[in-house]
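Throughout our pipeline, every protein is held as a single compact record rather than as scattered files. The remainder of this section carries one protein's record, kept here as part of the documentation.

===
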Amino acid sequence: MAADLSTIVKAYDVRGVVPDQWDEPLAELLGAAFAQVTDADALVIGHDMRPSSPGLSRAFARGAAARGVHVTEIGLCSTDQLYYASGALDLPGAMFTASHNPAQYNGIKMCRAGAAPVGQDTGLAEIRALAEEWSETGAPEPAATPGTITRRDTLEDYAAYLRGLVDLTAIRPLKVVVDAGNGMGGHTVPTVFAGLPLDLVPMYFELDGTFPNHEANPLDPANIVDLQQRVREEGADLGIAFDGDADRCFVVDERGNPVSPSAITALVASRELARHGGQGTVIHNLITSWSVPEVVRECGGTPVRTRVGHSFIKAEMARSGAIFGGEHSAHYYFADFWNADTGMLAALHVLAALGGQDGPLSGLVAQYDRYVGSGEINSTVADQTARLAAVRVAYAGQDGLTLDELDGLTVSSADWWFNVRPSNTEPLLRLNAEARDETTMTKLRDEVLAIIRG
């Protein structure tokens, strides 16, 4: 009987519980399918610190090699380190990680040469179909000459490449607390930060895919409490938290207060625009703060608004030739990094900006954080379509309001905006709201939530 991969093949990646939903034999079939769909002569594979990652990635490598593909294994790495390898070596790549999901999960993020993403519309559906077919009929005939599997360490090259994109030579000494969450930041940070004038205070750098200290998802406020406290105790200049595969970074200031990813997007955008002579396109998704397009315009750039999701950001970056892109979820995309996301490069920009002036981080980011946001609020609903329609009816036709449906429903006035969009995987509606002051935002947030929740 053919395997049903519908529960583990998502819009942009493979993800599920091991071994209940997928295992090494299935990983081997996926490796063979990836080799066939990409039609590659060679590919590169990396993995995170989860207990199941080495076995799954090696099985994937066997499947690809059996099809005649030469496989380069880079071993333990962050997701953006895998993207670096895909870009620098000009090879398709596969990263074994489930990011911030619990320990029993694992997954695969795949890309074509140059770190171009593989999603449902760009090869993932075909990979799934082949793996399902072969699970019933047996693996395809091996190539007459199997491919080789070799090892290569790319950590030093990755670190040097990132440091070459940000000038950190003249920064003042900084004390920085880094919470790696027992994820891949514990592997990459010591090498990337080596030689910089930093007093590094490491937290949870031990690689442990069971996440014994806290979930490796810094967007959940509960998971940065330890970092906030440590920053205050150490009198540090800032704190940085990475997620499990270290492709996202979250920043707290010298007081331990979270810095909004929108403010980081605006700060990095201003630096990238300055580096490009005050010209260039910057991508932001539709639930980043009003601050982002404002700062981009003030710095001479052109802001472009997109739907939420890395595939939309990367596609628009490629289409428009954008120099940078940012999301509310702390994903940051760089043209100089093959349009791929790298939280580590964003972190280096923050260090360079802070270390290039004398004031505290809270003062530096204030100019980029101009409005009051609600954060993302999820509501479980029985009928997403009906509840979204109820919100639309409540605001349609009101004077001074604009409505658009680029992604869910966005309603804007001169003093506030909100967006409600359905989850693709759960019976949820997600609300983000922003206003010029706290009172207005609170009133707006509660008003829209009352409609959503019926």
The radius of gyration is 22 Å. The chain is about 35% helix and 20% strand. The first strand starts at residue 14 and ends at 17. The chain has four domains: 14-153, 157-258, 261-366, 372-452.
